[in-house]
Each structure stands twice: as C-alpha cells, then as structure tokens.
Amino acid sequence: MDDTCIRNIGIMAHIDAGKTTATERILFYTGENHRIGEVDDGEASMDFLEQEQDRGITISSAATTCYWKEHKINIIDTPGHVDFTAEVERSLRVLDGAVAVICGVSGVEPQTETVWRQADNYKVPRIIFVNKMDRLGADFYQVIEDLENKFRINAVPLYLPVGAESSFNGIIDLLANQWITFEETDYGSSMSNHPVPEKLQKLSAEWHEKLIDAVASYSDEITELYFSGEDIPRELIIKTLRKATISRKIVPVFVGAALKNIGIQPLLDGIVDLLPSPLDTLPMKGVSVKHGTEMEIKHDPNGPPLALIFKINHDREAGSLSFIRVYSGVIKKGTSIFNITKKKRERVNRLFRMHANKPEVVDQLAAGDIGVVIGFKHAQTGDTIGSEGVQILLEEMNFPEPVISVAIEPKTLSDQAKLKDALEILMKEDPTFTWKENTDTGQLIISGMGELHLDVLVTRLTKEMKVDARVGQPQVTYRESILQQITKTEQFSKILAGRENAATVTLTIKPLPTGSGVKFSSKVPPKTMPNEMFEAVKRGIDNSIRSGIRFGYEVVDVETILESVVYSELTASTFAFEAASALCFEAACREADPILLEPIMKVDIIVPSQYVGEVMGSLTARGGLINSLQSRTSADHVMAQAPLSHLFGYSTVLRSSTQGRGTFTMEFSHFAQKA
Q1: Whether 561 and 608 share a structural domain
Q2: How far apart are CA 372 and CA 354, in angstroms?
Q3: Do 370 and 449 fall into the same domain?
Q4: How far apart are the C-alpha atoms of 406 and 443, rounded to whole Å?
Q5: Residue 476 Cα to chain centre, angstroms
Q6: Same domain for 500 and 572?
Q7: How far is the C-alpha of 208 from the C-alpha of 213, rounded, in Å?
Q8: What is the DSSP string of 25-50?
Q9: Residue 337 maps to a domain
Q10: Torsion, CA 394, CA 71, CA 85, CA 423, rounded to 10
Q11: How crowded is the C-beta side of 161, counted as CA atoms within 13 Å?
Q12: Which CATH number covers residue 342?
C-alpha cells in the first residue's frame, strides 16, 4: 500500500463526549467488527480492559487498524479523564492527525481544552465531530460559537444537522447540497440522498457561502471561479481544505449522533480526504547521540530503522507488548534492533498489527506504520529503537509529576515479591505512576496523578494481576526545597578491608525559581580526577535529592554546583565520593532554610448558575483561589486553584451541594510553599 494511503489518527475528547461509541461505529462500517459493541453494555471492543468495561471509561489507548476506501487507518482511542492525560500525551506524540469529538450538548469542556492544548504543542492537524445531536439540549450552532471563542480557531462546518434532539434525522452535505439520511434497520449502513428540506434551504445556502468563503482565502483558483459565477469542483474544494487543515489554518467540522448511527461515514471520508498521511507531516525532531546535535527525521521507508515506543502493555500470555510508531526504515520479525535510550540490543520476536484486542501477525512494520513488538525485555515508554550504526534519540517525552500517594502492602509476606513485580510492570506501562519503598517503615508507597488514577491501578493489581494487597488512605505527595544559597565542604574517610577510602567535596546549593527542577554543574576541571568519580558525585547528590531534607520528600528547584574536590589516587574510591557528596548535599540543605512545597491543582468546575455562589464559597473555604467565572447558557464555568490536600473527597461534596449536577476536574498546576 502506498504511504499516501496511511492515516495515523487519534480520537480525543472530554470524558463522556462519546468518542469510544464513535470509534465502535467506525470499526463497524469499515468491516472490522461485524456487530456494534456498546459502551453502556460493556461490550465496546476498544475498551477491552475489564475495568474499562466496568467503569464505562477509556483508560489505556487501544490501537486498532481498519480500512476505508483503499486507505489504511491506524486509530488510537485515547482516554478523556484528566487523570489519564499522560495517555493522551503519548498518543498525540505519534499521531499525524486527530478527530476531536465534542458533545453537542455540553460543547467545549475543560478537559477538551487541555487535550486541544496538547495537540497544539505537537502541531497535530484536527477535524471536529460534533456528536450527540440526538440528546436533549443539543445545539450545533452554539457549539460552533463555543469552538471559535475558546479555541480561537477557524471552525468550518462541512455538514449541518437536520433537526435536533429527538427530531434529529440526518445531515446536510453543504458541498453537494444534499440531505443525507441513514437507514435505521441496517445500523445506518445504507445512506440515501434527498433534496434539502425547503425550510432549511436558506440556512444551507448561507453556510455553503461561508464554507466557500473560508476555502477561497487559500486558493486563487476558487476565488476566480467564484467571482466568474462558475461551478467550483468538489475535488478542488477538498484539495484546498486538505491543505488548509494540514497547515492548521482551518478546522473542518462534521456532525452526527454515533449512538443513532448518523454521520459516521462522512466522518470517515473526512479522515481520508482531509487528514495528513505520514508524508504530509512535519519531520520528527531527534538528537544525534554521536554529535549531540538536533536533526530532523524525514519519513523514509529506505532509511535506517527508527521507531518510538509510545506505550507498553503487559499481557499474561505474551509478556510485554511494545506499541511502536515507525518513522524511518523497516522493522522486521526475527531481527535484532538497538534500544538507543537504554543502550541495549533487543530481539524482535514477533510483530503484530492490532485490531482492538485481536492481533494480526505481520512480518514487518515500515515507516509510517503503528504496530506491536513482542520480545523486548528492557523497553520502557518513550524509548527510541533503531540502528546501532546511526543512533538518533527521538525527543524525550515529558510526563507530569505524580501528586498523590497511597501506602500499599501485601496481605501475606509471601506476596511481597509478587507485589513488587506487579508494581514494576505497571511502572513500565505508565510513566506517571511510580513506587518506592520507605526505608524507615518498610512500607511500599505508590504515587499517581489523582484518586481515580490510583484507584484504577490498584484495581488492576488486585483483579488482573491477582495480588492480594491492602491500601491506605490517599496522601499528598509533597516536595522539599530551600530558600538560601549555601556553600559547604564535607570530608569522608573510612577504612574498609584494610584500605582507606577518602574524599573531600565542596558543594554550593542555591534555590531556583518554581518549576525549574534540579540542575547540576561543575567548576572542577575534568582532568582533576577520573570520570567515574564525577559520576559518583552525581549519584550521591541524586540519592540525596530523592531521599529529601527533613521529611523524606523529593527535593526540587535546587541547583548544585561542584566547587572543588580533594582527590588522591591512593585513597580515592567511587564509594567515598558518592558518600561525601551525599552527606555534603544533605548538610548544606539543612542549613539553607528548607521548606515544604505542596501541590496546587488547577480546578475546573461546571455547575448550574443557581449553585455557583455556594460552590465558590466552599472552594474558598478549602484554601482555593477563584481565577475566573464564565457564564454559559446551561451552566457556569468556575476556574480556580486550590491545594490538593484540601480537595480529597471534593467530588462527593460538590455532587451533594448541587443535587448531582455539578462536575469538576483537576490537574496539577505547580508546587507552592505550604502555608
């Protein structure tokens, strides 16, 4: 198949916008599924994890391949809940285009804005599908206004709805000037064209004019044909729209109701006609390991093999499944390949293309393809795999900090090793999940993005991985930092096995602005001592950073400068330098005005107008700071910041104070000094 016929797309949206339902319809009409699975029945094929079926939400990005009009479409169905933002981030990274599913009733919701911003960062071209037009309160034109105001985009509808709510019964194709209806008896597979209903002709002509006007800005040919009163060929309009969509100047809008099987085939046409192939996308950025220079990786099936592992899934039978996107060359079954990130050779035992959770065995994956490798032992999400001779690291993935922790312990001592193995698997799969052992108490502490995130992972541990464990109450993950700059010298000397191990290290530590992370630099000339001693100094500092200053929380926003060392070939050892730098860092931090930092969350609340005063009052009482209030037709949108420690259980409080009509999402904003 020609590379121009491949589409790597993601389906992204706010929770409950109906994107998994839309994906199920896509799989049905492309012949992947012979029957339609419903989310509400727990039968959606893209939600194949047991919990996704229990909870009716998408947790992991399932990848599937289907075919439409001689085009191969690789679809990644991404989660809509804010706790799983990292899943969305990973997916966007490897996509060429995306379909944003927007609810026809709620319009643009907070999480949609988060995902939209992430797609902007990765410069992903998008089309929009306004779904749920059959629901009570659906208003297509209000959603278009919402899109333009909130996203500041040029939203251009190609279809209009005929009717709304219970009377929604088809769509108008603005280019063909036809009313399309979908046959209910065969799940919308048969479509019929009719003249536009008389009462909608004026509206249809008006929006057709807007569509031509929007497209004419990007084509002199269309402008000339328009002014000379000639017919503008559909092919020319589609070609111009495609160009404007790929350059992110226009966002085409489609409309329908996935649950009623209306509007999915035109959306599939839009994916094929308007979204980019791997050849149309911007080159991927990478860094040459040998020269340290940034370079561009162009789509080249004949180049050296290069791929990014964007997801790891653990399968009980097959072991580790590594989902990869190939950018260059060909990856073949039975060959060995180099993990450039880990500097280890790996073997490609088997290759699959996934159809939801049903694998199709393939012999190779070429540039532009998305597939699964079985056989990697060291792989982790975000690793680059490729040729040992041409080592290029693809851009690193940056994941947000975990902000919430719980203690977990096995019910029996014999389960301790099993629990650690299971936690290790989960950490490989999800970089926003971490675990560590508290050296003082022996407790295992797991950390994640939110209460739902940890709840889902714990349920996976107990149900899927069959580990019996007790879980404590959620705790906030604090950080530590300093306010003063301090220079300190520490001497370490110890006799081990009759030999003296000695080192003297002088460090300066200074505070950095919030969000800077940790930095290390050295004023000691490289020739002063062997490189392994410098590595030992870094290791000692890193260990101290992780173990904290006073409370055992990780240290952030600190720069460490290695000022000088006392090195003697007779007594120096890596052990001594590691110990001296760890002791020096800890002692300096204790004198540098250590402070405790707590996570501050960005909170978005959608609430009916009559409850907005009460909601703002309860947020302020929890230490929240109201940033803005926007009034909508059906509800008000409160944007605020509040300490995470005051937000545990807030969803229950909100539901009870708004008779179940208020919804809220939160995501990590920054760390601030605890009051």
Answers
A1: no
A2: 7
A3: no
A4: 10
A5: 22
A6: yes
A7: 9
A8: HHHHHTTS-SS---TTTT--SS--SH
A9: yes
A10: -70
A11: 26
A12: 2.40.30.10
- Render 458-514 in DSSP notation, one character per residue: HHIIIIIS---EEE---EE--EEEESS-EEEEEEEEEEETTEEEEEEEEEEEEE--T
- Tell which phi-psi region holds residue 522, choosing left (phi > 0), alpha (psi between -120 and 50) or beta: beta
Report the Cα 372 to chain-centroid distance in Å: 19
Q: Are residues 417 and 387 in the same domain?
A: no
Residues 194 and 178: beta-carbon distance below 8 Å:
yes
Q: Are residues 309 and 457 in the same domain?
A: no
pLDDT at 38: 46
For the purposes of burial, counting CB atoms within 10 Å of the CB of 481, is it exposed (0-12), middle (13-18) or buried (19 or more)? buried
Does pLDDT of 4 surpass 60? yes
CA 474 – CA 451 distance, rounded (Å): 7
Confidence of residue 356 (pLDDT cuts 50, 70, 90): low
Q: 224: Cβ–Cβ under 8 A, 6 or more apart, which residues?
A: none
| C-alpha distances in Å from residue 594, one per residue of 110, 413, 586, 671 | 36, 37, 11, 14
Pair 128, 11 in one domain: yes
The model's pTM? 0.71
pLDDT of residue 21: 81
Residue 34 domain boundaries: 3-196+252-274
> Interhelix angle for 264-274 vs 19-29, to 10°?
80
Assigned token pair, 379 = 């792989």
Q: Please give the tally of structural domains in the chain.
A: 5
Hey, what's the torsion of the CAs at 646, 649, 650, 654, to 10 degrees? -160
| 330, β-bridge pairs | 366
Average pLDDT of span 99-106: 89
Instruction: Give yes or no for a contact between 543 and 575, defined as CB atoms under 8 angstroms apart.
Output: no
Measured CA to CA, the distance from residue 629 to residue 434 in angstroms comes to 35
Interior angle at CA 382, CA 376 and CA 387, nearest 5: 60
Predicted pLDDT of residue 459: 84
Residue 5, φ and ψ in degrees, nearest 5? -100, 15
Same domain? For 83 and 14 the reply is yes
Name the H helices within 504-591: 531-547, 574-591
Give yes or no for residue 52 having a pLDDT over 50: no
Mean pLDDT of the chain: 84
Tokens, residue 128: 């929009």
Contacts (Cβ under 8 Å, ≥6 apart) of 488: 506, 507, 508, 509, 584, 587, 588, 591
Contact predicate 52/24, CB 8 Å: no
Contact status, residue 84 vs residue 118, Cβ threshold 8 Å: no
- Rounded Cα gap, residues 229 and 231, in angstroms: 7
Which residue type does 574 have? T
How far is it, in rounded angstroms, from Cα 603 to Cα 639?
6
Both tokens of residue 317?
């039978």
The residue whose two tokens read 């439409």 is 68
Domain contains 381: yes
33 confidence band (pLDDT: 50, 70, 90): low
> Which region, left, alpha or beta, applies to residue 403 given φ > 0 means left and ψ of -120 to 50 means alpha?
alpha
Q: 409: alpha, beta or left, given left = phi > 0 and alpha = psi -120 to 50?
A: beta
Residue (of 52, 38, 46, 50) closest to 64 by Cα position: 46
Amino acid at 441: T
Locate 378 and state its tokens.
């060291």
Phi (first) and psi of residue 639, to 5 degrees: -115, 130
Over residues 318-327, the mean pLDDT reads 83
Spatial strand order in the sheet of 499-511: 486-496, 499-511, 558-566, 518-522
* Tokens representing residue 605 in the block: 């609340």
Residue found under tokens 């003697």? 568
